[in-house]
Amino acid sequence: MKKKLGLGLTVLLLTAVLSACGSNGGNDGANNGGNNGGTDTTAAGTNDGAASGTSNAAEPAGDDAEPVTISFMHFKSDVTDGIAKIVEQFEAENPNIKVDVQPVKYDDYYTLLKTKMAGGDIIDVFTLNAGGQTKLFHDGGYLEDLTGKDFMSNFDANVLQEQATDGKNYIMPLNAGPIAVFYNKKIFADLGLQIPRTYDALMAAAQKIKDAGKTPFALGWKDNWTLGMWLSRDLPSNAVLVDKQTDFFDKLEKGEAKFADDPSTKTMIAHAQDLFKFGNKDQLGVDYNGAVDLFAKGEAAMMYMGTWPLADIQKKNPDLYNSEMGYFPYPFSNDESLNKLEFNPDASLAVNSKSEHKEAALKFLAFMASKEGGDAWVKNTNTLSYVKGTSTDIAPALKDLQPYFDNGQLYNSQAYLTTTIDWTTQFSQNVQKVFFKTATPDQIIKDMDDWVSKNHK
Amino acid sequence: MQALRKTFKREMWYVLFLVPGLFLFTFAVIVPLVTGARYSFTSWDGISSKLTYIGWDNYVNAVQDSDLWTALGNTFKYAIIMTVLVNVLSLLFALLLDSYLPARNLFRTMFFLPSIISVVLTGYIWSYNYSQGFPKLFAAFGMDVTSPLGNPHYALFGLIVVAVWQGIGPPMIIYIAGLQGIPGELLESAKIDGAGAFRAFRNVTLPLLAPSITINMLLTLTGSLKVFDLVYVTTNGGPSFSTEVITTFVYKTAFSSFKAGYGMAMSMIFFVVLVVVTVVQVSIFRKREVDL
After folding, report:
1. Which of A192, A269, A199, A220 minimizes the C-alpha distance to A446?
2. Is residue A122 in a domain?
3. CA distance B263 to A114
4. DSSP structural state of residue A95
């Protein structure tokens, strides 16, 4: 008994000692951080001077400069390895800068980033989405103004304007990609189907595929974002382009419009029911990976998705990837001329205004904005870069889209979403009630309007 | 007096050992609770550096928020079914594994094993089971099943199955310990008096097991009222809010809708609910306990 007591006490003491060590360690870390910060700011200051003196300070300002580490948090966790390679390339060229990369799953990204920022943790460089999220962080005073920086000239002026917040650029456009429908060329050929250019044609094709005993659409709607991604594009596309409700989301933000006023809300719900009907079995039980699997195995004929699953499909079914799959714009309406290719910005880069290593952080951005960085991005992440002149050759299936790129038949439905209200998640949950007949479309529209008015007074 | 002071001096030393625990409790429980209470009176969005106090508005809104009531309803539905199922099943297993079963230690280990796996991992395993494993398994017998997690009518029950599978271990151990604490002669004399197996269980075992029942009921009920991780990794409240429990709802409000102040107010309300439930439950079950 005594022995046990002694053991217990020892363990207790040990924990006390350890926890004391822990807190001390933390303090030390903080002190060091502070000290380092101090010296680094001066270092950055001198570098700054050097930079303004010699206009092109892309070369390392001097090998004797103290090495710095910048933290880089991003939400492209699906291409973690690819980004690690790009960072390696950057580090090889800038031996004095180490980049501490922190990939985070998109679903948790903003929560984590906000928590870190609010907790005083400084992330030097991080990815953001243009629009509401950027505005939020700008309002919080966390974003460095990038307007007019040298490297920003590597981007198209339109793109910069599109991603500007209050007329200024706080984020640097990084990558973009089409979101469209992958299709299985073999299934289409066997059934004699053409690429559908209107919504009705799409559904007619789906009916034929279903009649032939195949699954028309691979849906991974267990993951909320897959449904949300579709829904937050179908609705604004129809609202603005078909129903001409150009200021709908402005009004929604101000509380002057309701979902009930917008006919495209009903259109979207009807479309969702169609997709659900023509989807794989267990639509809400299969997740994104399951859906990609269905498509890769050739069990499903179509899949509405960005370019992310390409690498996965290549691994799972190289034959399909190389020659048997195509890509066509999602026809959200029955007016062929409106059904352009959805082309969306994805991640953009921001520099923390409170960063202690701004110089290094900006150098990192400059690298990502260079042709070299852009090409590295395309090669390693399989998505398209906004940097002028980078290649677009990321997969055979994307060749189908070349005419749309060449003719400029692109649009970005996300630019219509001029609201900070995050209605997508709420709506994708509500629309599931309609699938299972626990509510009518009118009921859920009313629920959505109630939710908006309750949450945004 | 002298002796008292001496004892005091000698025993004071042990107070020192309370310090780490007290320290942890203060900084991990008390401080967050107090700051949380403070935030609940603000319209803080979770990120900005200034706070605006809005009085009791958050609480008034919360009481009128039908979504909160739906979430509370789901939470209690989940917790009550869980409490009953976990306790009945773990008591049954305990009775079985307390008797002279061959290889009972092996079985005890096996039934306890799921409790060792992390909840996140369990969530992934069962998501896979439901959406891939079971459909393929049953397809081999010509049956067509789909994941219960994909259907709003069954999703909550799908989660309960997972939680029961994982949660049965610890209460089972407590029940086994309780059963082993019951003197054999009591059961024996009941037998001599002519009581059958069920009668003996009902009138001897069960009353003497009451302390174990109290603690198990309490632990499973409060534990499942506070469920978050399992729901978050498997369904995240879906489909169509059918598994939206209070914790996921608060989390979404605070972090996805940028209403940390409002989320805090709802947590505070839930905190009060939890305290009331616990006090009521303990006082009811305590009355039924008997001493040896």
Report:
1. A269
2. yes
3. 15
4. T
| Structure confidence at residue A393 (pLDDT) | 76
In a domain, A26, yes or no: no
The verdict on a CB contact (< 8 Å) between A114 and B239 is no
* ipTM here: 0.76
CA distance A368 to A349: 9
| pLDDT at res. B229 | 93
* Residue owning tokens 């690690």: A84
**pLDDT at residue A52 greater than cutoff 50:** no
Q: Are B171 and B219 in contact (CB under 8 A)?
A: yes
Dist. CA B89–CA A267, nearest whole Å: 49
Give a yes or no: residue A88 inside a domain: yes
Q: A219 and A135 in one domain?
A: no
Q: Which positions in chain B touch A431 (Cβ < 8 Å)? A: 240
A135/A64 same-domain check: yes
Domain region containing A277 = 178-343+411-455
Quick check: B46 and A118 CB within 8 A?
yes
| Same domain (yes/no): A71, A218 | no
Smallest Cβ distance to B240: which of A117, A290, A433? A433
Using a cut of 0.90, tell me whether the model's pTM lies above it. Answer: no
Choose the closest CB to B150 out of A282, A430, A439: A282
Q: What is the CATH classification number for the domain harbouring A72?
A: 3.40.190.10
CB contact under 8 A, A438 and B239: no
**Chain B residues close to A140, C-beta within 8 Å:** 47-49
Could you give the number of structural domains in chain A? 2
d(CA A416, CA A235): 10
Mean pLDDT on A397-406: 83
Instruction: Give me B134's structure tokens.
Output: 């079971």
CB contact under 8 A, B252 and A425: yes
Q: Tell whether A276 and A381 lie within a shared domain.
A: no
Whether residue A27 is contained in a domain is answered as no
Q: How far apart are CA B221 and CA B195, in angstroms?
A: 33
For residue A326 the two structure tokens come to 């195509």
Instruction: Tell whether the model's pLDDT for residue A29 goes beyond 50.
Output: no
Please indicate, yes or no, whether residues A336 and A207 belong to a single structural domain of this protein: yes
> Do B132 and A290 count as a contact with CB atoms less than 8 A apart?
yes
What tokens were used for B262? Answer: 């409002």
Spell out which chain B residues touch chain A, with contact meaning CB-CB distance below 8 angstroms.
17, 19-20, 23-24, 46-49, 61, 65, 67, 127, 130-132, 135, 144, 146-153, 235-241, 252, 255-259
Instruction: Give the model's confidence band at B255: pLDDT under 50 very low, under 70 low, under 90 confident, else very high.
Output: confident
- Phi then psi dihedrals of residue B44, to 5 deg: -60, 135
Closest partner residue to A19 among B20, B130, B149, by Cβ? B20
Q: What integer best gives the mean pLDDT of chain A? A: 82
Percent of chain B past pLDDT 90, that is, above it, reads 49
Q: For position A43, what pLDDT does the model report?
A: 37
- Summarised one tens digit per residue, pLDDT across range A273-315 is 999 999 998 888 888 888 999 999 999 999 999 888 888 898 8
- Given a contact cutoff of 8 angstroms between Cβ atoms, the answer to whether A357 and A40 are in contact is yes
Nearest residue of A to residue B253, measured between CA atoms: A455
The answer to whether residue A363 scores a pLDDT higher than 70 is yes
Question: Do A354 and A221 share a structural domain?
Answer: no
Q: Are residues A287 and A415 in the same domain?
A: yes
Mean pLDDT of A379-386: 84
The answer to whether residues A328 and A270 belong to one domain is yes
CB within 8 Å of A64: residues ≥ 6 apart:
none
Taking CB atoms within 8 Å and a gap of at least 24, the contacts of B200-208 are: B201/B95, B205/B179, B207/B288, B207/B290, B208/B178, B208/B181, B208/B182, B208/B290, B208/B292
